[in-house]
Amino acid sequence: MVQTDLILQYFPNADEQKLALLDALTEGYKEWNAQINLVSRSDLENLMERHILHSLSLALFFEFQPFTEIMDLGTGGGFPGLPLAIWFPECQFTLIDSIGKKVKVVEDLAGRLNLKNVKAINTRAEKVEGPFDFVVTRAVAPAAELVKWTRGKFARHYSHELRNGLLMWKGGDLAEELKAVRQLNPKIFHLKDYIALPFFETKQIVHLPMIQPA
After folding, report:
1. Are 106 and 83 in contact (CB under 8 A)?
2. Contact 7/22 with Cβ under 8 angstroms?
3. What is the pLDDT, as a whole number, of residue 34?
């Protein structure tokens, strides 16, 4: 499993089944990318780092508890949803995208890997019924738009250290973008604090709690 050596650097206790599934997922993406331009050639050559590890970076500081319901908004070819579904097999993932051919890729890959905890839907976030504990999303839209699209879709009860809400994979300077949602008290996790690779230097995951304490 040479491809997953990078994952083992940061998750040394990862079990072999998860690593095998990540290997299979990588091969599936290479096959599909020859038909549909899911990622750039450069990203395809660095798929394990820029897409798989990037998706899994959340698990370096946060774990979904069993039976957590998660929506991946604008999943594209399945990021971060498919790697997270492999990593958290006892959670339920609903991957949505408005582009039908990308949803077909997700459906095919989830089927190949026998991921029973994945459902893919060709739709927009506003039309998806909840409730969800978390919505994950990677570089889809500004935070204020994501708040608008997902408002009212979160379960009221929460049992994680992070309250139910948005988990947004972002890059670059977020100061201006987060001004619009500062009333929600966003929390920023800088991925360079967890992964010592140049690609992650400006990458962050932002948590926006959409459910407030009673």
Report:
1. no
2. yes
3. 78
Q: How far does CA 201 lie from the centroid of its chain? A: 18
Contact (Cβ atoms closer than 8 angstroms) between residue 25 and residue 102:
no
pLDDT value at residue 42: 58
Backbone angles phi, psi at 121, to 5 degrees: -135, 130
> If DSSP codes are grouped into helix, strand and coil, which group holds residue 120?
strand
Residue 63: alpha-carbon gap to chain centroid: 13
Measure the CA–CA gap between 4 and 147, rounded to whole angstroms: 34
CA angle 54, 170, 168 (to 5 degrees): 85
Q: What percent of the chain has pLDDT over 90?
A: 79
pLDDT at 8 over 80: yes
* Neighbouring C-beta atoms of residue 159, cutoff 10 Å: 11
Predicted confidence (pLDDT) per residue in 100-150, tens digit: 998 999 999 999 999 999 999 999 988 998 899 999 999 789 999 999 999
Domain 60-209 falls under CATH 3.40.50.150: yes
Confidence check: pLDDT of 2 > 60: no
Q: What is the pTM of this model?
A: 0.94
CA separation for the pair 100, 169 (Å, rounded): 23
* Other C-beta atoms lying within 10 Å of the C-beta of residue 140: 17
Using an 8 Å Cβ cutoff, are 23 and 1 in contact?
Answer: yes
d(CA 30, CA 3): 13
How far is it, in rounded angstroms, from Cα 185 to Cα 179? 10
